[in-house]
Amino acid sequence: PAPSAPRPGPWRPLRRVPARARSPAAAAAAGVLGFAFLQGQKESQEYQRVLLETGNAAGTTSTRLAASAANVAKSFNVTQGAAAGALAALAGTNSVATESFEKFSGLAVKMNEITGRAVGDTIKTLDELGKSPVEASIKYNEATHHLTASVYEQIKALSEQGKTAEAGALAQKAYFDAMNDRLPALEANLGLLERGWNKLAKG
User: pTM value?
Assistant: First the structure.
């Protein structure tokens, strides 16, 4: 006789294998990447807006400014977002050479961190030094005492020769050099509380 067919066993529902849950670390990493992307998009839009509004008087691009923000963050130990804001403000002036953008924006952000002086105020000072080298140098030297007599005479001589751009660049350099040299002493004078807040702000 032919063998009988096997008798079916009891029916059991199929078990759904749950998808592996995303680890907290992976979720956090995805969130950080997403935030960084959105922040980068926002910064790029701000650069483009400033360059369009000023007719790109700075003669640069949003891509170059983004790269500069990363350089400033690394060189001055500041956040890239803060550096981006300062760079956008500098791009809105027409008295600062693009080759000075990184060091000037770094100074502005560090001055804000250490002394509380607004980034915009430092950039305004540099802008005025570029546009009115002699008058602005006298004005700001009264408060900061950053000029030597010989440098002032050079600024004045260049201005009298009609070389305003060169005079402005020298006035800006003199201000930057003096303020940048003072940053370590100013930072060392911060109390423990202020240092703690600065570390928290940088993440």
Answer: 0.72
